[in-house]
Amino acid sequence: MNDIFHDKINELVHSISENLGIYRGDNELSDDYLFRLIYSAIGRMAYCTLFDRIDGKEEISLKYFSQRIEEFIKSYNLLFPDIYLKHTQSMDLKKTIRELYEENGLLYYRTLYVRPSHFNTSTFSNISFFRGVSPTKNIMISGLGMYKKEDGMKAGEVKDICKFFQVDEPITNHFWVHILEELSFHSDFDILSGDVEFLNIKNLNNGYWSSKIESDETIFRTLDKKIYCLCRRGLNGWDIAELPITIYDPYLLVNTFLHSIGKLPSSRFKVLGNIVRLHIGFRYPQRLRSFVNLYSWPLGDAGKSTFNRVIQADVFWIIKTIGEYLGYDYVQE
Questions:
Q1: The pLDDT value given to residue 281
Q2: Which of 260, 275, 301 is the last residue of a domain?
């Protein structure tokens, strides 16, 4: 009986791998590979649920969508309890799937209802990315994101794929000069007395923010994260200007500032055959972070892996090209 069950499990793993185009990386631990398969399989079934037609309607209730994801998670947890629990102790997988699909335009919300987005695609190099694609189409998966290798397709420009995922947020010096021209400075003699925290310029590995000020020019924010300011030491104290976070993502502004003073770390990556391990040395702006997280798997404890991701190698080179186009650096290990 155990041998039969073991054979069925192996058949399931092989089927997921072949159907979604997910293969084991060089020297990848078996448990890590199985987690990637389970993570993507649950996401794929959740996406297919969006196309269920209940009473002929083209949308489903949010309650039904959530319940189906919970059922998928429970089913795989029964089959692979050690694998699932090892990787998801801090992560609400149901919430992760819903948020990444919504943030990247794969589903639309209407009060208490959800439906799949309309079909759309964008091609760069030989990779086509999809939204609203039919569940019957033969596609590949990286993380939760859908794509297909299509040799011979007319490839678009990198700016087109950036526009497709709305990640066209540069961190160039020209952009920072534009921001500075719009700022209005005022004097503050003792910013250290406020409930604020300062950008940890010297070592972001110890966290982005610190109670200590480390430079004559830096960024600070209020503890409620509602106000971000650029501050400069002047002759009679500090000159302060509030940054326009209602217009721009706070971390777009923070990263652009760090880039302008040569303090933004590079991201490091290691190619392991079919996959690439990426360590992001800083916090991406929300749109870029959501895109990267959609097309990657968390590494280690899933709930703590904003900065450590695993990506299908084919997709990684596109992500790297997009990142470099936006001004970020990548270093191969």
A1: 85
A2: 260
Under a CB-based contact definition with an 8 Å cutoff, are residues 37 and 275 in contact?
no
Rounded Cα distance, 165 and 185, in Å: 35
Q: Are residues 11 and 109 both part of a single domain?
A: yes
Domain identity same for 180 and 192: yes
Task: With a cut of 50, list the residues of the chain below it in pLDDT.
Answer: 1, 302-303
Count of domains observed in the chain: 3
Tokens for 307? 């900065």
Q: Are residues 7 and 111 located together in one domain of the fold?
A: yes
**Structural domain harbouring 185:** 173-260
Q: Are 9 and 34 in contact (CB under 8 A)?
A: no
**Which residues, including other chains, have CB under 8 Å from residue 168's CB and lie 6 or more apart?**
159, 162, 326
* Angle CA 45–166–169, to nearest 5: 135
Number of H helices, E strands in the chain: 10, 18
Summarised one tens digit per residue, pLDDT across range 173-210 is 899 999 999 999 888 756 666 788 999 988 887 788 98
Percent of the chain with pLDDT over 90: 57
> Quick one: tokens of 153?
């397709």
Q: What is the pLDDT of residue 304?
A: 52
Alpha-carbon distance of 196 to 165, in angstroms, equals: 33
pTM of the model: 0.91
Residue finishing a domain among 213, 235, 260: 260
**With contact defined as beta carbons under 8 Å apart, do 278 and 328 qualify?**
no
